[in-house]
Each structure stands twice: as structure tokens, then as C-alpha cells.
Task: structure prediction
Amino acid sequence: DLLDDYNRGGFGGALQPGQKPALLLVDVVMAYLTPDCPLYSPRFETALASCERLTAAARTAGMSLNRLIDRRIDALNPRTAHRPIQTGRISAQTVAVGALLSLGALAFAAWQLNRVTFFLWPGAVVFLVSYPYTKRFTWLSHFILGFTDGLAPLGAWIAVTGSFWKASDLPAWLLLFIVIVWMAGFDIICFIVTGK
Result:
């Protein structure tokens, strides 16, 4: 039972107000798997494994590219100066190879889903690559990060339905908008709190 799992994991108690900001992570995938939810699609269960591979590949590529592109800036920042690239525990070349392999895995996972997903995956890559650069010249980088992260639930919707342009696709666009606002807000709060 899910409630028992949560209680065994220490999540059964009440939360008290805290002193610092916290991140609330909501598993949006459950919306696609819950029959009573308007986002539910029985076709999603068959696409779930490919969506998981696609998400893992996109996350790995995005994080690797972000670390690689910002490696010189991160070396000057006390908060990020101790990361593996900055300390020499991992070479920039190793990170670049990992990013390229992840992009290949991303393409393969998109190809496994459907033609629309495969056709759109280069657009996601543009945002994965461009986000680190936007931090250098615009405060809108927070919203670009939110959009980039919001592509995941939109991509899952496209993987299941093969569409994103119909009126029935409005819930996916609303979810994208929610993720943009959520991520941008969280990123701005982190910036205000840390000053970085």
C-alpha cells in the first residue's frame, strides 16, 4: 500500500513551518497513469519505458552541457568551485563525451516513441544547449530554464498522443506553463537567497 510505504519512509508526519526555502517535487507522470485524471491515457503505460530513457538522457545531457559550458565561471564561484570538473576529478573531455552519448541516447529514445517526438527532439536540444549561455545576458534565463524543464511533461504528452497542436492538447500546454512559472520562481528565489 502506498500510504504504508510513505509512513515507513518517514513521510507520515505533519510538516512544521521551516526557516529556509524548500523544494516541493510533484511527480507529474502520475497524472498520465491515474485513470481519474484528465491527463490519463492508457497508451502512456506502453510509452513509459521510452519516456524514462528519454528523460534520463535529456537530464544527463543538460546537466553535462551546463557543467561543461559554465566550467570556467563555476571555478570562480565558491558554491561551485568544488565540483568534479573544477577540481580535476573529471576531465572536460569526459563530460563532453558523456553529453554526446546522452544526446545520442535522447535521439534513440525519441525515435522509439513516434515520428512527432523524433522530429521535435532537436528543438529540445537547442534549449538544453542554449540555457547556460542565456545566464550571461538576460534575466529571462530563469524562464528559459523553466521552459526547458517544462518540455519533459509536454514531451511525455506528445509521446503518448503523437500530437501537440489540437484543442485536446491544451492540458499539456497548461502543464508546460505551470512548470515554467514554478521553475522560474524557484530559480529566482534561489538566486535571491544565495545571491548567485
Summary: The chain is about 70% helix and 0% strand.
